[in-house]
Amino acid sequence: MFSFCRRLAYAPPVTVTISDHARVRTLVLDRPEALNAFDEALYDATTEALRAAADDPDVAVVLLTGAGRAFSAGTDLLEMHRMSTDPTFQRGKHGFLGLIDALVDFPKPLIVAVNGLGLGIGATILGFADLAFMASTARLKCPFTSLGVAPEAASSYLLPRLVGRQDAAWMLLSAEWISAQEALAMGLVWRVCEPDDLLAEARRHAELLARRPIASLVAVKRTMTEPLREGIAAARARENAAFADLMGGPANLEALTAFAEGREPDFTGM
């Protein structure tokens, strides 16, 4: 069986590690020094990797995970602060919206293995996972209200469908941590594994799927996801408008300034 591994560097030191085995392409978010937080370069790298996997006739399934102790700490808040305050900030080629476009359009099975903490897009990406595995020690958080912003990635539409309205409301409103067992109980993830078993178990299921005809896998996914596309597009439009209204506002600037200064934000009167 053909297998290889390569490391693609898009903007040093940001990398996505890519390996192929048995028609499964594994993508590892590899910015462990920043807990795999997405800056513009990592958004671009992940978008390009997903698009390449979608177009590769030898790839049947994609498995996405993170390097180190985090899956992803979400959007890089230090860069987000610069983006909000520096009019000369240069955005990436694809950015956050490009990654979500790639996830919406990804035609093949996407398996996510949450190996550690997942915040923001590190949690909401599960709305696009066809199967999600999670380490028993991992935790998830949707920190939008603690940042003074709105939901993202159609999570206001996908999460209620995935876990029910009240669990989704708690995740999106509270900005509190969700444990692996809570995520399993609410249906946010499909399996919880011991940390040392996570990738092996996720790969085992990915390779089982990859033995099926790719055209069949694509057809099954399309018939399941096509009815959701209109709702996803509408939710993204609502979320993006709300996010644009709130980003750079008093609560958001207070949250980002507090993060940069290493203190808790003070939302008194907001």
UniProtKB/TrEMBL annotation:
Subcellular location field: Peroxisome
Keyword Cytoplasm on entry: no
Gene3D superfamilies membership: 2-enoyl-CoA Hydratase, Chain A, domain 1
Transmembrane segments: none
Keyword RNA-binding: no
InterPro entries given in the database record: ClpP/crotonase-like_dom_sf, ECH/Chromodomain_protein, Enoyl-CoA_hydra/iso
Primary subcellular site in the record, as a coarse category: other
Keyword terms: Isomerase, Peroxisome
Protein name in UniProt: Enoyl-CoA hydratase/isomerase family protein
Organism, as annotated: Nocardioides fonticola
